UniProtKB/TrEMBL annotation:
Database matches in Pfam families: Erythro_esteras, Pribosyltran
Domain of life according to the entry: Bacteria
Species of origin: Sphaerisporangium siamense
Gene Ontology MF annotations: glycosyltransferase activity
Protein name per its UniProtKB record: Erythromycin esterase-like protein/orotate phosphoribosyltransferase
CDD domains from the UniProt entry: Ere-like, PRTases_typeI
One GO term (biological process): response to antibiotic
Keywords, in A-Z order: Glycosyltransferase, Transferase
InterPro entries xref list: Emycin_Estase, Hydrolase/PRTase-associated, PRTase-like, PRTase_dom
Keyword Cell inner membrane belongs to the record: no
Residue ranges constituting the Phosphoribosyltransferase domain according to the UniProt record: 78-181
Length: 667
């Protein structure tokens, strides 16, 4: 698994700037960089904090003949720090150390003149100094800098680095007031392993950044640089119930043929309603022909048959009855009922090939998909149905369980694995595909595609449940890769008779957003949004939602009853809090046309994700992760206060809502 979190040093600086946001607006903050590598990192921090930027030079004292190995360091002011472990192990003579210090002191003064270009160093006495490097290994250079800084009598010293081993950070914590580090890889191999691009910074780059910092720290009239809140406020676009106007929506979508629209929870009315209205506009005006939802394939296909005028269901409510597995409210809710009814009406009278459909791309429907494969084969090839029934009998000992018990037994060797059987069935169905498809034209092709994807769901679900006990990353990645594969297959199927098919995807933010700029990405997770960007390069858009507070439909535990729960206000340093401070009930930020907002939201911040379970008592641990929002999505819609989506089966528990934590008191 890769530990590469940062694209380059500037990117690392933006991440650190978010972690140091508490120093914004504090008087007397100075940012000092250890050149050369620390300067690009420190530049982003200084710009974010609106603080002066300068260099604080430290030169490594290399072991003679092995200069890459530091036996010590010398900093501005002549302070020398000796690496006692190295010096002792190699029996370095004191005179050798002094000679190296004299040579490097000369180089240190020369570089100070090159970098400062006549500018005076900042006043450090009584200041809060943020000391920045591009990473630490042994920390010898940083310790030398800290030792030298003490001579200037600053009020506080804060060390800020993108990456370092925990042992080095622990040593530094005794020397300074605060240590801020974005990541501590284990095992720690080198600083460069945390970067995709670790090209050495040049003297020219250092000079350019120092010049730019001196020019741009304040505006042309001496005013402070625009705050992040002000940047978002200035470029936010109005929405109505979370829906942008047509001009803003169509500009955002452009010529994309895959538009992924997220949700910050699986139980918020406004997210569902706004997403449905945007999808209607894209179907009506932009030729989109399908919704691909984070729903089980067979259950969603029942809705697909209804909205396209097929199947036996006489109403949208009947078509939604396939959603019985927890969490049923995700798709059996009032918004989905209205949308399915609208889509049926929209399709009525249109040619078969122009009707828009509704499809599921998730993999949880193991037993239902097995049943649908057999039912299809019973109609077209009874002998093949018998073979399928025999193969799927492998799962009979887990009948009634959706796969977890099977996965536990097969994964740990305590039960039979059905891997060979499900793969054989998938191959068998594909082998006879052409024969089956020749029967009844378009409808036969659709039903064959439905059966093939059901067989693929069984294969993917079998593997998913078998791997879920090996660790969360393996099963998460398998699931999102399956969704991406299904999306690609659907696009190919729908586009087989004309131009490229245009599809709207409905899924949670955690699937829609690009994992590469999130905390999850550092653990090796991939997401549907990331894979869509890779597979539909330039032709997809990712849209996320946020909310500050309100209510949500969610359970306390998996398979538990749905309740209407209060959503706590967004945490400090979160994107939800920043959006709340922007003011207004709702807005859209489309980053392609909002460069200052994109810059502001490129900093690493907390982001909330509520799934089908909401545990407010462990809010930070259970529901927040760090990310860079303007790179995670192409646009974000914020609705400050939202309400719970209404399940079609509204239980007494849901109607009553959540008992306030202060009950029976009123405060």
């Amino acid at each position: 698994m890769s530990n590469r979190l940062f694209q380059n040093r500037r990117d690392a600086g933006r991440v650190l700037a978010g972690l140091l946001d508490g120093y914004r607006d504090r008087p007397g903050v100075v940012v000092l960089a250890l050149p050369r590598g620390g300067v690009p990192v420190a530049y982003e921090i200084a710009m974010s904090l609106d603080a002066p930027l300068d260099v604080f030079l430290v030169r490594k004292l290399g072991v003679p003949g092995r200069e890459e190995l530091a036996m010590g360091a010398i900093a501005g002011g002549g302070a020398v720090v000796v690496n006692e472990d190295i010096a002792g192990a190699l029996d370095i003579p004191a005179e050798t150390m002094r000679a190296a210090a004299r040579r490097e002191a000369h180089e240190l003064l020369r570089h100070e003149r090159i970098y400062r270009e006549g500018r005076q160093p900042p006043e450090l006495t009584g200041k809060t100094v943020v000391l920045v490097d591009d990473g630490l290994a042994t920390g010898a250079s940083m310790r030398a800098a800290i030792h030298a800084l003490r001579g200037f009598e600053p009020a506080a010293i804060v060390v800020a680095v993108p990456a370092a081993p925990e042992s080095t950070l622990e040593d530094l914590e005794f020397l300074v007031d605060e240590v801020v580090c974005a990541t501590t890889p284990s095992p720690f191999l080198s600083v460069g392993r945390s970067y995709w691009d670790f090209t050495q910074a040049t003297d020219e780059e250092v000079r350019d950044l120092l010049r730019a910092a001196s020019r741009t720290r304040t505006g042309p009239h001496g005013t402070r640089a625009m705050s992040d809140v002000a940047a978002v406020r200035a470029e936010a676009l109005s929405t109505e119930d979370g829906v942008p106007g047509d001009d803003a929506l169509f500009t955002l979508v452009g010529d994309a043929r895959v538009v992924l629209i997220g949700e910050a929870s699986h139980g918020t009315h406004e997210f569902y309603a706004a997403r449905a209205r945007m999808t209607r506009r894209l179907i009506e005006e932009k030729g989109f022909r399908a919704v691909a939802a984070e729903a089980d394939w067979p259950d969603a296909y029942r809705v697909n048959r209804y909205v396209r005028g097929h199947g036996e269901d006489g109403s949208a409510e009947e078509a939604l009855r396939g959603f019985v597995r927890f969490p049923a409210w995700m798709w059996r809710n009032a918004v989905m009922l209205d949308f399915a009814g609208w889509l049926r009406g929209h399709n009525d009278g249109l040619p078969e090939e122009d009707r828009a459909g509704f499809y599921g791309i998730d993999l949880y429907g193991l037993h239902r998909s097995m049943h649908e494969v057999i039912a299809y084969l019973e109609r077209v090839d009874p002998a093949a149905a018998a073979r399928a029934r025999e193969r799927y009998a492998c799962f009979d000992h887990q009948d009634g369980d959706e796969g977890r018990a099977y996965g536990f037994a097969a994964g740990f060797g305590a039960g039979e694995s059905c891997e060979r059987e499900v793969v054989d069935q998938l191959v068998d169905l594909r082998r006879h595909a052409l024969e089956y498809a020749r029967r009844d034209g378009i409808l036969a092709e659709d039903e064959l595609f439905y059966a093939q994807r059901n067989a693929r769901v069984v294969a993917a679900a079998e593997e998913y449940y078998r791997t879920m006990f090996r660790g969360p990353v393996s099963s998460w990645n398998l699931r999102d890769r399956h969704m991406a594969e299904t999306l690609e297959a659907l696009a190919a199927h729908l586009g087989r008779r004309g131009g490229p098919a245009k599809i709207v995807v409905w899924a949670h933010n955690s699937h829609v957003g690009d994992a590469r700029v999130t905390e999850a990405g550092t653990r090796g997770e991939v997401t549907l949004g990331q894979l869509a960007r890779e597979r539909f390069a330039g032709e997809c858009r990712l849209i996320g939602f946020t909310t500050y507070t309100g209510t949500v439909t969610a359970a306390d535990d998996w398979d538990g009853p749905a309740g209407r729960k209060r959503v706590r206000p967004g945490l400090p340093e979160s994107i939800e809090e920043l959006h709340h401070e922007v003011g207004g009930k709702e807005f859209l930020v489309s980053f392609a046309v909002a460069p200052e907002a994109a810059r502001a939201l490129r900093k690493a911040r907390l982001e909330r994700a509520i799934g089908v379970i909401y545990r407010p008592r462990t809010e930070r641990q259970s529901h927040y992760f760090r990310c860079r929002v303007s790179e995670q999505f192409d646009a974000v819609i914020h609705i400050d206060e939202t309400r719970a989506v209404e399940p079609l089966e509204r239980t007494a528990r849901w109607e009553e809502g959540e008992v306030p934590e202060t009950y029976p008191f009123t405060v």
